[in-house]
Amino acid sequence: MGEEKEFQLAPFLIWLIPLSFLLLLARAADWMIIKGQWFASLAAGNHLRREKILPLRGEILDYQGRKIATNKLVFCQRQNGRCHYLDRDQALRLQAAGKIIEKHFWRWYPLGAAAAHLSGYVTAAGAGEKLTCPGFRPGDDDGQRGRLGLEAMADCQLRGKPGWRLLEVDKEERLRRELGRQEAQPGQTVTTTIDGWWQEKIAQLMAGRKGAVVMLRPKTGAVLALYSSPSFDPNKFSFERDDRAINQWLHDWENTPLLNRAISAYHPGSVFKMITALAGLESGKITPETIVEDVGVLRVGKWEYSNWYWTEYGRREGKVDLVKAIQRSNDIYFYKVGEWTGIDNLLAWARQFRVGQKTGLGLPGESGGFLPTPEWKEKTRHEKWFLGNTYHLAIGQGDLRMTPLQVALETAVVANGGFWCRPYLLASEQPRCQKLPIHRQNLEVVKKGMVAACSPHGTAFPFFHFHPQVAGKTGTAEVGDGSGDSHAWFTVFAPADDPQIVVTVFVERGGSGAYQAAPIAKKILTEYFRGETEKVKSSSGK
User: Fold this and answer.
1) 326 shares its domain with 454
2) pTM for this entry
């Protein structure tokens, strides 16, 4: 056999082994030294959690401290990034087992539908919806937004600023310890001028009707009640979330329950006649003794303008002065006052009463109503302003629109001696009243007519022999859409000799103001003057 040869490595293998060792050593150094801090932070991230502490939203109270909007405690366990809500017993059991249970406060509205349009509601912010409150930073956003009513109007006051807490948890998400926290700052409590007892009482009286009721203090403008019917339960947007109910409300075009009718505009009809009367008196075109013969129907060319008494009963009123014209709501008299006063004077006095302007109440969605003018008609309809248009405006018809709140403020001017007071809802606000250039003797004449309207032979028959004496005005306003329907109005202040309260009732498509709106106002004022015993008992039990 030949001599055995010695085994030798190929030259490239001699260099490969130490080179591979050096590469492994460099990789290990990179992992342990260079990226060690990064891996340490990843490990810390697996057991440290920074959690936002949401602030408690401020409460909304009525003037007696009764809650209109408050907060209810709910519990949730976070799983896969989502919050699963628990009842109290479930939360306590899981918490005892070491699970992290979050506490949240959901919005609760104790008066429910009785104050829904006043309170509004809270929902999650929409995509891209930014917080615009002064002094708040992007991180201060709690993800909630006030919608409608006071929740929207006072959103920046009601919302607080979030805090945070740093938690250490194990791999199964059980709490080990809290490492630090910064407490959330709660929102401010907002106290209103509203009386929650009256909100509930009026809701009962308006059940089954479309319309609105406004109660306010004539000497200050403080709003005591503001109710719109039909209403909705604001709790269905938050604590008792009900998407089916919400969707139904949003698409109920016939009843529009989310619409606040108290601040929406409608034909006012004869409740506007107080402005026409004052315009005629202040312009010197009429005096309290000016007489108009009720002929049943005024004819201008081929057009006819009738009095309601002629239309319904075929009867005339005879000779009518201003007090009787208000007492009987005589259309013929006010047609002539409008004609003699002239459209420019009539419009000027309507503007004094802020017709066509928002009142400044501050609630979202408030309409300013609409005051038609010759310029508007020519620009939009390409027609001249005719005498018939002035006739319609003088009795509150045609294109004129006013809100129930505006009608209440018009009534308050007569009640308080000629001051237009900006309405307000927040108890922290001060009354802001402006004296209108109206002579007291002219206000007294209009007031006398309103007292007569609530006395025998007046139009407001539900108030005949009512005590104390009140001053009011009925209104039956044609809708003008071909349906033949009419809106029912009644506005009143009481007592007549020392006004403490204004009540305006509007019933949408209700028909006669005397038959539909005035009886509701009578029930309200009967309760008001009966005393507040029932209200005190009801409030003390809540």
Assistant:
1) yes
2) 0.86
